Amino acid sequence: MLNRPEHPLEARDSFHGARTFTSNRGLELEEPLIFEIGRPETTGVDLDEPEPFESRLGVLERHSPIGLPGLSEPEAVRHYVRLSQKNYSIDAGLYPLGSCTMKHNPRLNEAMARLPGFADIHPLQPQSTVPGALELIGEVARWLMTLTGMPAIAMSPKAGAHGEACGMMAIKSAIAAKGEASTRKIVLVPESAHGTNPASATLIGFDVRPVPAGPDGRVDLQAFRALLGPEVAAIMLTNPNTCGLFESDIVEIADAMHAVGAYFYCDGANFNAIVGKARPGDLGVDAMHINLHKTFSTPHGGGGPGAGPVVLSRRLAPFAPAPFLRQEEGGLRLVEHTRDDSQSFGRMTAFHGQMGMFVRALSYMASHGADGLRQASEDAVLSANYIRASLNDLMSQPFGDAPCMHEVLFDDAWLKPTGLTTLDFAKAMIDEGYHPMTIYFPLVAHGAMLIEPTESESKASLDLFIATLRDLAQAALRGETERFIGAPIHAPRRRLDETRAARNPVLKWTKPAPK
């Protein structure tokens, strides 16, 4: 057994005997909470006392001071700049999170999204004043339908999980239109799918049945076929899956689903691996959401809603939600209300989508072109396989040393003799200046370590990352446990007691006693 501290240090002032009066370390500045440095009587903005007025808040009117701390303008700027310096980002270094593509967001895209004609429009403007915006949305839709080989698309979903809900609602409406709503209640979800898939299916009112993975990390075809029947509504399959593997039996799976009258939902979060190489529509997919932030370089959230467009097959196109674009004489029209005789499942969201995300995505598509998008996929897969081949003599893979797609999966079998855990290894990466990879997911691999380098990284960047992981792995195998236990050692904060934090969360700041 390793000797682990019961309560790891939360601050680093007391280790290595290196204390400073301010707790600062050179240019790495300690920053207290704003409640600890702010003062309620201080503000960086001068506000005049209001003229006498009659409040209309009724019982909601506040009768005591709000108590929020105030800062002068220099203090406010310094506070948030210091906090930003503690945050890891793709602009600071390689972000190896698997299944959550963290690629570089080209600054050209940001410049395009800030053009006044796009940045200053309002969703409630008359359609006659925004024909350019509608045309841009239509062009993004055309690119996405072309790249996926699908005939229809819903642009309004705001994120991946929102897109999953959209696709499953279309499937549910299609089932109801056939008069099978009372019988088709089951959605099959492979163990290698994203975790939001079963949640989305359950939210829509379906019952979820898991499909086990085979020895190769892909859907177990025999187990899958045993689950088929007239009560099955759909399958939600991630491809490439979260083991970083392409589901090579996807066409056979799609044919089997269609043969029993069911639908094929594909989670498109990993589309970054196959853009320009394979079209989901050609593989038998009926619905698939596309995370614009993962595949087409729009930021994760972008300071507001993201974008998760959903492409639909001809079987599901009539059930697409409003609002949607329609080509009419004189140009595009945004159809905001459906007729009573429409098969659309209704309105998915108040407005058409997140305009800033569409601008960024089209900028990325247009600047790369079809050949550039295909090369991005090829480079993402090449980068992941380069890491796989460079580490597989030290770190174990749960499904053998087979080529992967855009992410490579390791497990903790190689760590067993050391007494260390996946968490220990991941925390030690922080000391080396790297955000850890995705750990303990997917669940089909024990102690999973899922690495996705994306196509954004140069060979020099990958070589340094690989050398760092090799050094850590060799240190672990040599028994240098002090490098891992309690890590990170050099970060502004030490390792937290995560179990204690989850079971006894402190949700309110209490002013500490004066020293």
From TrEMBL:
Q: Which residues cross the membrane?
A: none
State the EC number(s): 1.4.4.2
Give the GO biological process terms: glycine decarboxylation via glycine cleavage system
Task: Give GO MF terms, alphabetically.
Answer: glycine binding; glycine dehydrogenase (decarboxylating) activity; pyridoxal phosphate binding
Q: Which UniProt keywords apply?
A: Oxidoreductase, Pyridoxal phosphate
**Coiled-coil intervals, chain numbering:** none
Catalytic reactions on record: N(6)-[(R)-lipoyl]-L-lysyl-[glycine-cleavage complex H protein] + glycine + H(+) = N(6)-[(R)-S(8)-aminomethyldihydrolipoyl]-L-lysyl-[glycine-cleavage complex H protein] + CO2
- Residue stretches making up the Glycine dehydrogenase C-terminal domain: 376-474
Q: What is this protein called?
A: glycine dehydrogenase (aminomethyl-transferring)
Write down the species.
Methylocella tundrae
